[in-house]
């Protein structure tokens, strides 16, 4: 490595392992989980690259993770943050082809909220010049998940249900569904977002706080017959929605935005109506999907961002040095991603 500093500024985790709680991706005070630190510059091993950060995004998975509530353990003293965009400034053996490229990346063991990040070369996607750094910061986790999950829905019918539809991922799935000639049924918390969801492509929008929401959904379900429920909330209303779906329906749980644990109330639906409850995790999709198929999906994702069919809505921008102080407040704003810059 030449012309690189020996140390870097990073927002690091202050806990190890798992917490055993399930409180959801909300923060009262970021300093309960994070601290500022000057740490040694990491060094890329075989198959890895060192990236100088341009932008990182804050996803719900980052918050689950720093609180010890995600599918992998924390390591105290290492940087937080999974996803971002930056320039490859050094490479390990076998990753030389990425030297000098601007890439979107996912840092497998976290580490994106730092001036420099090590990532596996396989988890880096060279970016087209017409993709902005801010779109580049949210180019992998949500867009690939949207493509993979709408594919699940497309295989089994015209209509599908999306909860937390105002999330970045929900919006991507509604517009993709519309573009593919499908009928997304969107569930939202805020009534003032209904028109936005319709304009993005939802065929129907239900406000979950409406006392009549479950009955309204039953009517929509009888009419549109959605077979797949792509659910990031997973609360009791989700269970009611699943119960009101037709024979063979699949409840695909991919997030846990609500801290409420739903109860199953109608086991006969699994037995007699061939319904299924399952999970989706992008990490598993990436391990199981052949590289050629992943490349096709990545090319389509970049094309959609480049021509404006998809965009990253941004609610707040923080520098790395603002994160510990400002992240909790920044996350209280709806309708967009918090973007971190060095
Ligand atoms: N399994 C996977 O591989 C995978 C991959 C990517 C993302 N995800 C999951 O997908 C979900 C969305 O991610 P994102 O990055 O698109 O999120 P995001 O843009 O940060 O948006 C989250 C939105 O969800 C809504 N929300 C929050 N808490 C809620 C609750 N208790 N009930 C209903 N709605 C709630 C809020 O919108 P309002 O204020 O408008 O209600 C919030 O703005 C997250 O759960 C994330 O973990 C999973």
From TrEMBL:
Keywords: NADP, Oxidoreductase. GO terms for molecular function: NADPH binding; oxidoreductase activity, acting on NAD(P)H. Signal peptide: none annotated. The keyword NADP applies. Pfam families: ADH_N (PF08240). The keyword NADP applies. InterPro entries: ADH-like_N (IPR013154), ER (IPR020843), GroES-like_sf (IPR011032), NAD(P)-bd_dom_sf (IPR036291). Coiled coil: none annotated. Transmembrane segments: none annotated. Residues 31-340 form the Enoyl reductase (ER) domain. PANTHER family: QUINONE OXIDOREDUCTASE PIG3, QUINONE OXIDOREDUCTASE PIG3-RELATED. This is NADPH:quinone reductase. The lineage of its organism: Bacteria, Pseudomonadati, Pseudomonadota, Alphaproteobacteria, Rhodobacterales.
């Amino acid at each position: 490595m030449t012309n690189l500093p020996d140390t870097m500024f990073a927002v690091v985790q202050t806990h190890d392992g798992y917490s055993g709680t399930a409180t959801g991706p909300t923060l009262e005070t970021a300093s309960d989980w994070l601290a500022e630190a000057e740490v040694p510059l990491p060094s890329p091993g075989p198959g890895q690259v060192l990236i100088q950060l341009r932008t990182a995004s804050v996803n719900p998975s980052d918050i689950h993770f720093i609180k010890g509530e995600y599918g992998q353990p924390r390591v105290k003293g290492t940087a937080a943050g999974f996803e971002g965009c930056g320039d490859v400034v050094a490479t390990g053996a076998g990753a030389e082809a990425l030297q000098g490229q601007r890439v979107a990346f996912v840092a497998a063991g976290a580490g994106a909220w730092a001036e420099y990040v090590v990532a596996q070369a396989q988890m880096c996607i060279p970016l087209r010049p017409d993709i902005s750094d801010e779109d580049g910061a949210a180019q992998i986790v949500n867009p690939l998940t949207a493509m993979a999950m709408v594919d699940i829905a497309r295989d089994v019918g015209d209509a599908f249900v999306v909860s937390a539809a105002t999330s970045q991922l929900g919006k991507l799935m509604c517009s993709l569904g519309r573009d593919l000639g499908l009928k997304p049924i969107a569930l939202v918390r805020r009534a003032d977002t209904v028109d936005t969801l319709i304009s993005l492509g939802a065929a129907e929008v239900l406000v979950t706080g409406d006392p009549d929401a479950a009955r309204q959904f039953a009517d929509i379900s009888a009419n549109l017959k959605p077979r797949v429920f792509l659910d990031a909330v997973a609360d009791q209303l989700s269970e009611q929605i699943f119960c009101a779906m037709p024979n063979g329906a699949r409840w695909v749980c991919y997030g846990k935005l609500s801290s409420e644990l739903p109860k199953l109330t109608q086991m006969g639906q699994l037995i007699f109506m061939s319904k299924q409850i399952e999970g989706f995790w992008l990490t598993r999709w990436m391990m199981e999907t052949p590289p050629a198929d992943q490349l096709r999906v990545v090319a389509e994702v970049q094309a959609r961002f480049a021509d404006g069919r998809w965009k990253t809505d941004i609610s707040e921008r923080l520098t790395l040095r603002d994160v510990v102080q400002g992240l909790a407040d920044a996350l209280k704003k709806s309708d967009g991603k918090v973007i971190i810059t060095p």
